[in-house]
Amino acid sequence: PLYECGFKRIGCIGCPMANTETRKFEFERYPAYKKAYIHAFDRMLESRRERGMPIYDEKQTGTDLFEWWISGKKKG
């Protein structure tokens, strides 16, 4: 049934091996997963700050990181 709903592949929601368009489609369909990813990114950034590890931008949030990740663009 998922193929009939527009899916071209069946796997993990937000799989980093999937292309950008697939991930965007999945997160639009399943917003609770998007929220969970953003929460995980927030926790990762908090942990890195607490341990004094480098972060690309000190003002960066989990939402910022999610938007960058979902865009498929490289930092640098």
Textual characterization of the structure:
- This protein is mainly α.
- Helices cover about 55% and strands about 0% of the residues.
- It is built from three helices and no strands.
- α2 packs across α3.
- The termini are far apart.
- The model has no long low-confidence stretch (mean pLDDT about 90).
Quick structural gist:
The protein is mainly α and 76 residues long. The chain has helices at 20-29, 31-50, 62-71.
Break the fold down into its secondary structure elements and pairings:
Blueprint (H helix, E strand, L loop, with lengths): L19 H10 L1 H20 L11 H10 L5
Helix pairs in contact: 1-2, 2-3
Question: Could you state the order of secondary-structure elements as H and E?
Answer: HHH
Describe the global form.
Answer: elongated
Tell me roughly what share of residues is in helical segments: 40-55%
Work out the number of β strands: 0
- Structural class designation: mainly alpha
Radius of gyration: 14 Å
N→C terminal distance: 41 Å
What's the tally of helices?
Answer: 3
Low-confidence stretches: none
Largest sheet: none
Mean pLDDT: 88
Quaternary state of this entry equals single chain
Estimated share of beta-strand residues: under 5%
